[in-house]
Amino acid sequence: MILTLTPNPSIDRTVTLSGELHRGAVLRAVSEDTQGGGKGVNISRAAVAADVRTIAVLPADRDDPFVLDLLRDGIDCRPEAPAGPVRVNLTLTEPDGTTTKINSPGAHAAPADLARLERAVVERASQARWVVLAGSLPPGAPANWYADLVGSLRATGTRVAVDTSGEPLVALAAGLEQHAPSLMKPNGEELASLTGADPVAIEADPASAAAAAAVLVGRGVQAVLATLGGSGAVLVTDQGAWHAVPPPTTVVSTVGAGDSSLFGYLLGELRGDEPPDRLRLAVAYGSAAASLPGTTIPTPAQVHPELVDVHVLDLATA
């Protein structure tokens, strides 16, 4: 079972434009889609589609249309009393797949709000094979909240995956020796910021990405899945390092692709796959998501791991 925590969920509104985005111009939309989201919610969506049991913990009123929509979609949603209404995020998608995101900050969370979320996750952690802490933190949450929560969850014996950015990611990395998660999923820019590496080199050179990820593994993280956009992804564990090359993909929207990649890795681990095949499935899920509109999460029938090439990387020469 995968337990997800989305402390700052969102109503994701995607507007598909008929042409390029021009600042100050009047633009025409060809479609608009609205869906309850947030990184953890997206992972739970992927789990439902793959017939994997999941529970999604998030702050929202029980009768909020956001929660009712998730329940309608088959997601076992466990809402906790919120600090305020669910935020709205806007994504503008151009015909070539370029996306522009405008994310709202969310409601200001008090210590009591955060305590409810933490209690809800820790109490259910023993039921889960994986607990996923995903997305941004709401205003008012200390930057080290994820880091402290990883420490509490490790005591339950469950595996913990973290996918976040900005100050929460920096705070997590600063204390890896005390509370390293089982899995981290940075993108190339985030990986560079954590290790002092050149972000351009990491995006362009899988060996450089693997060397940077190995730094985090050396500090206690069991696995680092670094997504590199069109260059695929790199996986580094204490067993080795691998690079996966995605199949040719017509990019429609990159929103949710990283979340889908993370789910693909978790699904492979739940199936007992070896690390290279987990990476293969992660990249297949990410590529499938990028080929779909808006924040659409792929179903297993849309995922083709047989089209993904995986290569062993030599960390000694990276």
Q: What is this entry, summarized?
A:
The chain has eleven helices and 14 strands. Helix 4 (145-154) packs across helix 5 and helix 10 packs antiparallel against helix 11. It is 36% helix and 24% strand.
What are the main properties of this structure?
single chain; 318 residues; alpha/beta; UDP-N-acetylmuramoyl-L-alanine:D-glutamate ligase; 10-stranded mixed sheet; 4-stranded mixed sheet; 11 helices; 14 strands; 36% helix; globular
Description:
By secondary structure, the chain is α/β, with parallel strands linked by helices. It has a single domain, classed as 3-Layer(aba) Sandwich (UDP-N-acetylmuramoyl-L-alanine:D-glutamate ligase), CATH 3.40.1190. It contains eleven helices and 14 strands. The chain has helices at residues 39-49, 65-72, 111-124, 145-154, 166-174, 176-179, 188-195, 199-204, 206-218, 257-271, 275-290; strands spanning 2-5, 10-17, 29-37, 54-59, 77-80, 87-93, 99-102, 130-134, 159-163, 183-184, 223-227, 233-237, 240-245, 309-313. Strands 5-4-1-8-9-10-11-12-13-14 form a ten-stranded mixed beta sheet, sandwiched between helices. Strands 3-2-6-7 form a four-stranded mixed beta sheet. α1 (39-49) packs across α10 (257-271), α4 (145-154) packs across α5 and α10 (257-271) runs antiparallel to α11 (275-290). The longest helix has 16 residues, at 275-290. The chain is globular.
